[in-house]
Design goal:
The chain has 14 helices and 13 strands. It is of the alpha/beta class. It folds into two domains: 187 residues, Rossmann fold; 172 residues, Rossmann fold (3-Layer(aba) Sandwich). The strands form two sheets. It has a seven-stranded parallel β-sheet with strand order 3-2-1-4-5-6-7, with helices on both faces. The protein is globular, with a radius of gyration of 21 Å. The termini are close together.
Amino acid sequence: MIIAVNTRFLLADYLEGYGYFIHECFKRITKEHPEHRFIFIFDRPYDQRFIYSDNIIPVVAGPPARHPLLWKWWYDVRVPRILKKYKADVFVSLDGHCSLNTNTPQCLVIHDLAFLHYPLFIKRSHLLYYKRNTPRFIKKAKIIATVSQFSKSDIHKRYGIENEMAVLLNAAKPVFKPIDEEKKTVIKETFTGGKEFFLYSGSIHPRKNLFNLLKGFSLFKRRLKSNFKLVIAGRLAWKYESFVKDLESYKYRQDVILTGYLPESELAALTGAAYAMVYPSFFEGFGVPVLEALQSGVPVITSAHSAMQEVAGDAALYADATLPDEIGDKMMLLYKDEKLREQLIIKGLQKSQEYSWQKTSTLLWQSICNTKH
């Protein structure tokens, strides 16, 4: 079988979200199935580390697809030519887009429908593109998969899908694991001057609800008079400017640390040293940072009424993302109740064992095979 894969999110110094998903799945799939050939389609020069095995043929099809007009060109002009040239049996696209201009059977992975639920949190040009084309993608693809039962139900409700959808789940990388007290001390000295800290991991973007996180942290600081810090680890994404500006006049600015984008090993160490992960995102199709924290033996406070409740079950505390006081209350609860914190750590480590990239990649491979037949 000749399997073409959309690998435009495999970016050497910018690997997150879709990129991690593609990387973790296909470094396994390509090695486990040497009898098949894989065409990796990049939209810019690629890093050799993403060519995992000898059965991969990398193809660069520019220009980089960075906005809707170029998305249209890339998926409907460039990709079909490559599929035809290499006589691909299947085209796999894991970023919610597929080609509307090919007869090659397609396996499409849609992670979430955040653009429908929070349209103000996406560029207008992108929103119009997604609203216009997502129904077309769903109709065109032979197999559709997603990453949680939450997203599966959402997609069914919004679009109605005749065929059964696969739920691939997601996973955290093995590098996220509990660390010893000595290493925790070193990490805290490095990032927070030795102080305990709450951690948010992810991009700085309106949908991530960081304004309410700051308000919740203010409540925690004001009531408990603690020397805790808040560490925000992630890149500056769309509309980050207003957050950065507000942070300048934030009362507890000296207690907030922005790390920027961190390499995987540094982020894993930082996660393992946190007192707790606070992930108050308004909407996620899965919420990988939640699972990374659970797997690291770190308690989690996250949003109710989203995929995170499915991911963490009873191993996390939940707050209404729209209510900063609830976020702050959960931070205080965790601080005051050490027994609860220890129980959540144990439950989190147990819950995290339900997820693995091996399981995810196996389920994805089944979907790819179903696309061919």
